[in-house]
Amino acid sequence: MQIIDVKGLNLFYGKNQALKNVNIGIERNKVTALIGPSGCGKSTFLRTLNRMNDLIENVRITGDVTFEGKNIYKDYDVIELRKKVGMVFQNPNPFPMSIFDNVAYGPRIHGIKNKRQLAEIVERSLIGAALWDEVKDRLNKSGISLSGGQQQRLCIARTLAVEPEVILMDEPTSALDPISTSKVEDLISKLKKEYTVVIVTHNMQQAGRISDSTAFFLIGEIVEYGPTEEIFYKPKDKRTEDYITGRFG
Amino acid sequence: MSNMGSSINKKDYIKKELFGKIYSTFCGLLIIVLTISIVFFIASKGIVTFTRNHVSVIDFIFSSKWAPESLNSNGTPQLGSAIFIVGSILVSLFAVIVSTPLSVCAAIFMTEISPKFGEKLLRPSIELFVGIPSVVYGWIGLSVLVPFIRKNIGGLGFSFLAGGIVLTIMIMPTIASVASDSLKSLPLNYKEASFALGATRWQTIRKVLLPAAAPGIFTGVVLGLARAFGEALAVQMVIGNSIKIPSGLLDPTTTLTSIITMDMGNTVSGSAWNNALWSMALLLLLISFGFILIIRKISSRRSMR
Lengths: 249, 305
Prior knowledge:
The structure holds 2 protein chains of 2 kinds.
Chain A: E1 4-13, E2 16-26, E3 31-35, H1 42-49, E4 59-67, E5 70-71, H2 78-84, E6 85-88, H3 99-109, H4 115-128, H5 132-135, H6 148-160, E7 166-170, H7 178-191, E8 196-200, H8 204-210, E9 213-218, E10 221-227, H9 228-233, H10 238-244
Parallel strand pairs in A: 3-8, 3-9, 6-7, 7-8
Antiparallel strand pairs in A: 1-2, 1-4, 4-5, 9-10
Chain B: H1 2-51, H2 57-62, E1 66-71, E2 77-79, H3 82-113, H4 115-131, H5 134-152, H6 160-184, H7 188-196, H8 201-230, H9 233-238, H10 256-263, H11 272-304
Antiparallel strand pairs in B: 1-2
């Protein structure tokens, strides 16, 4: 069973249909990349998986999305779901608090108060996000005082702290410089040992570098989905080939 | 031909530019000159109490013996303003302490809980409230609040409590609108990040948004405090104006602003009594400067982030 299974998903913003009959199964402990031109619906799709679209008015969804076999709307409380399906955003968005409080935020709101426990979780998460060595002596400094790449890794640590099973990433490196980008890409390759990663990216080279499977979105539909090597070297659909070879997008 | 045309336009243009520059410089200077003159004027009249009437500054601020018509054993008039200073401080603090939680909750409601209703109904109402003249607040306090307190709670009705309540209502729009602007200007990212971690709306508000908006909210509180401190008419109409430190909420008392309002017309210019009122005006001015400095310090720290 796939960790996330999507069947017949349609999404409407008011009268506008943003996603059309999307069917896809996300494999556990793999990195799945979602690629496609701007406005094709890949971010919208990503946000459906942890019900972030609930925050937007006039959104209507039909179809079935299941996480570990259970329907994310009918069988899950949204708070529970978001603990298990975390999200990292395009623009690093640490809270205006200390580094420690940023990472401890998730565990604290879910009820963990014990200081030693929190300290352990913070250390573990920062190590997991490859940031611990750089900040371990200044956990009390503001999260905003870090550089862009560090801030993004802080956001990843923050997400790891609630111990999700899936990490959704919405263009996580598009606002970062090349060095930070490659650090985050290395991190993603390591993360898949324990987590499942779904990453939206504009950068095809990135998708080629780090993902195991790739889905190509075009105008709200998945045109093709398969192992990354196939999509990039032996695409079945002409539209996929055109996009990969840069003829549009 | 075209050369001549363009040089005429250039002269015209330069004249207009110069005129605009001179005019705006003049207006700017005028404002500065007016402000400095007013400050100088108040300062010069306010110092007379200490220079000519030989009242010590310490006595003025800390003594509660206010008997401006009599002379004490040294031959100097008794002009201790401690009662008024305490009155102003206490009633302003009361207003701020009561008003801030109410205003912040109103701001949260306007920006987070019901933004549509908040924009359409609450915000215009608040802006309306700010425009109501203080004499109207005072009159409503006088005709409704004072009798209510007298009948249902006790005392004369004219009381510290009445002054505090009127001020609380007067400064609520100030604090609420600054607080809601502060909340609104927070980056949307914070909310998103918090929700994505599995927080509820109230957790997000309490643990992320309010702390992040705190500097702005604090500015609003200081603005409210400054307004409460400087409010004269509405307070004077309901606070009772008896010259003693209140021993309870229902006791009448006096503030710096209310005594100036009350005694202004009854004193002779140049008399010690009159000079003392000017000194109180100077004190009010200095305290207002203090508030402004605090606000500027908070704002500059915020923009450094």
